[in-house]
């Protein structure tokens, strides 16, 4: 009987350690999820471009994760009527786990391009960010630029 206990002790210790590590990982995951801000929604004007309540990682021109797809915006009919062209910059709020853009807003350029640029920005898809970033942030800010030229 004593030999059996000596054999079981190391196995039991390994099982208890594994259960402890699983529980710690589960609690850390729940903490990360609970840091997520309320469900975001698209923004459209320059004044609504403050993502600070989401505490995003401040990325600069996609230092965070590779772009999977970046759809081109449609040239707006109103811009065509006015004969305008221009470059616009759009700030994106990206979910670091999914790589999906949850909000977009125009930060630079002619407002006539805002709806088309924001719509295209909301369709940009990134690879999920690294585990390191996912442990520290729920969101990242990215900036994309679009050049609108007359068709």
Describe the structure.
The chain is α+β, with helices and mostly antiparallel strands. The chain is built from 4 helices and 6 strands, in the order αββαββαβαβ. A 4-stranded mixed β-sheet has the order 1-6-3-4, with helices on one face. Helix content is 36%, strand content 23%.
Quickly list its features.
single chain; 151 residues; alpha+beta; two-stranded antiparallel sheet; 4 helices; 23% strand; elongated
Low-confidence stretches: 16-47
Structural class estimated from helices and strands? alpha+beta
Q: Spell out the helices and strands N to C.
A: HEEHEEHEHE
Total helix count? 4
User: Mean of the pLDDT scores?
Assistant: 77
Radius of gyration: 23 Å
Number of DSSP E strands: 6
Biggest sheet architecture: 4 strands, mixed
The percent range for strand residues is 15-25%
Distance between the termini: 87 Å
**What is the share of helical residues?**
25-40%
State the assembly state of the protein chains: single chain
């Amino acid at each position: 009987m004593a030999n059996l206990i000596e054999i079981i002790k190391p196995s039991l210790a390994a099982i208890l350690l594994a259960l402890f590590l699983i529980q710690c990982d589960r609690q850390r995951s729940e903490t990360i999820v609970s840091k997520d801000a309320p469900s975001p929604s698209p923004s459209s004007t320059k004044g609504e471009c403050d993502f600070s309540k989401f505490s995003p990682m401040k990325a600069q021109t996609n230092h965070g994760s590779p772009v999977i797809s970046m759809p081109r915006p449609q040239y707006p009919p109103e811009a065509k009527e006015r004969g305008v062209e221009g470059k616009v910059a759009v700030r994106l709020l990206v979910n670091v786990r999914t790589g999906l853009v949850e909000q977009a807003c125009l930060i630079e350029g002619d407002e006539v391009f805002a709806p088309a640029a924001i719509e295209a920005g909301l369709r940009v898809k990134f690879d999920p960010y690294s585990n390191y970033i996912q442990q520290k942030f729920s969101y990242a800010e990215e900036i994309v630029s679009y050049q609108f030229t007359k068709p």
